[in-house]
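Incident review: delayed structure delivery

Summary: a single-chain prediction request sat in the queue longer than the usual turnaround. Root cause was a stuck worker, restarted by the on-call engineer. No data loss occurred. The affected request and its eventual output are reproduced below so the record is complete for anyone auditing the incident later.

Affected input:
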Amino acid sequence: MTVSIFLDDAGKELEKRAAGKRVALVFHLKIKRSEDYLSWLRESANQCGGERLFRVQADPVAREGMWLDEILIDEFPSPKAALSFMATHGEALRRHCESWAVLAVVPESPWLFRMVRWMSRLIQVFKGVRDTGTPAAGWAAENTAIWPDQAQMAVARSQSLDDPLFVYNLNKYKAVAEYQGEVESEPSVSGKEAYDRYAKLAGFELMRRGAFPVYGGTPVCLLAGEPDCMLQDNWDKFIFVRYPQRRNLLATIEGDAFGESQKHRDAGLARVAIFMASPIGSS
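Output delivered after worker restart:
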């Protein structure tokens, strides 16, 4: 049974932790009534001062038992506006879904994503890579708590390689990084610091291909969801990455440079909720 959208404690937490800040609502949806849902999309778009930024179709595969059809991201000028939207439009959406979860996020400044996009264009000019053909399929994760699992990768490789790809990452960091089989130059670093090392190395390989984060921020609380929903955890970072083509991701993970970066992700992350998705419309 789905938890009521009117979660007073979560609403109070959102108002407290996001006071004076913009708020994004990230909707994770398994849709039951398609026509009714499409009507809801039209009626709810850009209401309560919000803006619908992204709508993507999730790959047809579960992550930790969680199946999604779509992910929506709406941004609002304040916690009050986001909660008003939930109060006005949330119950109707719930009725159109088999399951849903709504995560509140305080987004990063849009200037950050503009800067990253500019950096990607610059790197492409001087160090750009053009992926062609069908990438090898040798890469597989050892720790699927922090990487896509085998089923997710099989579905990812079966989709059209020419189409754009979005990758949703919800990260939980270790308090202290755990490097296996080697001694780092620093005796002890945080999980976030280790992940930042990964992001710097892997991010360069992404930007060479025109891929980069287009959205992200700090998760605040889950406003709606089922009692056993995997999103009910203390997450540290939301990152939403766009690839010009799906093959860009598959080629990147097969490269030596990416392989060198993996140890930092392995050391720094405790858990990841990860979904791959395709754009719908103008997303």
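Verification: DSSP finds eight helices and eight strands in the chain.
Action items: add queue-age alerting; document worker restart procedure.
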